[in-house]
Amino acid sequence: MLDTNRGEFSDLWDSTIKPADRERYGWATNPWVWVISFERCEKPKEKDA
Asked: What is the pLDDT of residues 13-47, one digit of tens each?
């Protein structure tokens, strides 16, 4: 089932890209993807002077 879903998604992905650009942006190109994540930090409580 995973292979079927992946195949359907790759077809959908390629359908959103102009045929002339598929060599550069298509599913088969498999470019690097960078993920940048952030973690929310709470401001430390101020100490009494």
From this structure: 999 999 999 999 999 998 787 899 999 999 888 88
Spatial distance between the Cα atoms of 22 and 16, rounded to a whole number of angstroms: 10
DSSP string over 7-36: HHHHHHHHHTS-GGGHHHHSGGG-------
pTM: 0.57
Question: How many Cα neighbours within 13 Å face the side chain of 7?
Answer: 4
The three-state secondary structure class of 5 is helix
Distance CA 45, CA 23 (A): 54
